[in-house]
UniProtKB/TrEMBL annotation:
Lineage, uppermost ranks: Bacteria, Pseudomonadati, Pseudomonadota, Alphaproteobacteria, Acetobacterales
UniProt entry keywords in alphabetical sequence: Hydrolase
Source organism per UniProt: Siccirubricoccus soli
PANTHER family cross-referenced by the UniProt entry: DEOXYGUANOSINETRIPHOSPHATE TRIPHOSPHOHYDROLASE-LIKE PROTEIN, DEOXYNUCLEOSIDE TRIPHOSPHATE TRIPHOSPHOHYDROLASE
Protein name per its UniProtKB record: Deoxyguanosinetriphosphate triphosphohydrolase-like protein
Bias-annotated ranges (Basic and acidic residues): 18-38
Amino acid sequence: MSAESRAQERAPWAVRPDASRGRLHPEPGGDARSPFQRDRDRIIHTGAFRRLQYKTQVFVFHEGDYFRTRLTHSIEVAQIARALARRLRLDEDLAEALALAHDLGHPPFGHAGEEALDSQMRPYGGFDHNAQSLKVVTALEARYAAFDGLNLSWETLEGLAKHNGPVRRPSAYLAEYDRLHPLELTSHASAEAQVAALADDIAYNNHDLDDGVRARLFTLEEAAALPLIGEAYEAARAAHAGMARDRLVTETVRRVINAMVEDVVAETERRIAALAPKSADDIRAAAAPVVAFSAPMQAMNQDVREFLFQRMYRHWRVNRAMQKSKRVSQLLFQLLHGEPRMLPPDWQARAGEPGSAECARLVCDYIAGMTDRFALEEHRRLTDPNIPG
């Protein structure tokens, strides 16, 4: 099917690539790709995207090759986002680009690393991985001769900034960028960005269930006490009696994902029918998101979140790893902020005065870009006198 045919099938409220608001730095088209296909391709080729392979979700990279990383999570989110966008007749390429880019700003060690950087950056405006993702694609990636960042389309940048909803209190960098290139922060994002956000929720909870069972932090039967998991568990057992344990886990998780996807499609179609939007701007101007779980599914999803919080994220083994990871991140920040001459030459040249706000922001960017593995190695180089710098 041609690109023109697919465009004709899009819903009236889908973002139209031929009506994109363009890029901060105008560029010639040059090929047959849509602007959002070009955005997706630029994201995939970044160093930040490659580094997601060695950035943790819950488990630090050396705890096992089987567990999810930020890279595999982003790929799973992109798959679900494309499926939802296709069902809802939205622009699949924009939804995919947002899904692939949404975690580019995550520091090493998952939420432990984010909490550590936020605590160190509190005097300088704090740290937020969503704002950092925008900073990665607008400033930190230095790949092109004509501009810093990736020069992504307005719609992709808007989606990165607002995929979790309107931004009433933007971070320092987001506010600064918005003054240069206004992203209409107080409105909702496009339906494609909302799809990417829901796809993130679906992927996150389900792969943590999978990883948690396989790491033996809890059993599948314990998780099946929850209504959403229990229904999928019983359906899997009924369909394939006597299957191997690993297969039962996979069959259960895929049924949960399917149930959540079907719920989002049904609830979104209900909200669209009530709103009757005629354009993507009508979606942005709506009083509430149009892409959402139903109230019963939202409640069941919250039950899963609470179960994971108690049985996985607060498990003693995970807590040990998180506390060690926080200390690594905090000490790296303190050492480099206090003595930026320990930074690599290209970073050192831009560091400013030791202990300054300018130096803090640069050190934060440096640490946020690290993988788990590099952060641990850098920690050893800076704290062990027996290891050459």
